[in-house]
Amino acid sequence: MKVMKFGGTSVGTPARMKDVTKLVTASGQPVFVVLSAMSGTTNSLVEISDYLYKKNPDGANEVINKLEEKYMGHVEELYSTDEWKQKTREFLQGEFNTSAPSPKNSSPALKRKTSWHRAR
Fold first, then answer.
1. R_g over Cα of the chain
2. What is the pLDDT of residues 41-95, one digit of tens each?
3. What are phi and psi of 101, to 5 degrees?
4. Which residues of 70-100 are buried (b: 16+ CB within 10 A; e: fewer)?
5. Is the model's pTM score more than 0.85?
6. Which of 29, 36, 37, 109 is the most exposed place for a label (fewest CB within 10 A)?
7. CA–CA separation, 117 and 38 (whole Å)
């Protein structure tokens, strides 16, 4: 069995993700695929953690919202059916939204982050 790993710029845009799909399916053989973060995601997560460490939830919230917008923006280009677009949007909303306690006026995703940060 072949193992293929992709991350960063190789999955950084919808076009690049489609290229990866072609590589993975080209042989017609079973392939184990490992995906890591899209381009810019790891840097965003580090930036969020830095803001939280500095007790700046507004800064973290801004980065989280930009990250969510980036992911949501790719949905239209990646899926051809409304059904899969909706399923993907719902999945992403579930990842970015929670109901944990948080600072006033922060995004639901930040609520999870700040809750975790306080627990440590």
1. 17
2. 999 999 999 999 999 999 999 999 999 999 999 999 999 999 999 999 999 999 8
3. -60, 150
4. ebeebbeeebeeeeeeeebeeeeeeebeeee
5. no
6. 29
7. 24
Six-digit token pair at 15?
């076009």
For residue 81, give the DSSP letter. S
CB atoms within 10 A of CB 16: 16
> Rounded CA gap, 60 and 99, in Å?
17
CB 59 within 8 A of CB 31: no
Of 38, 41, 42, 44, nearest in space to 8 by CA: 38
List C-alpha distances in Å: 108 to 46, 74, 76, 94, 104. 18, 21, 23, 10, 11
DSSP state letter for 58: H
Rounded-to-integer distance, Cα 54 and Cα 50, Å? 6
Number of neighbouring beta carbons within 10 Å of residue 11: 19
Per-residue tokens: 58: 């507004």
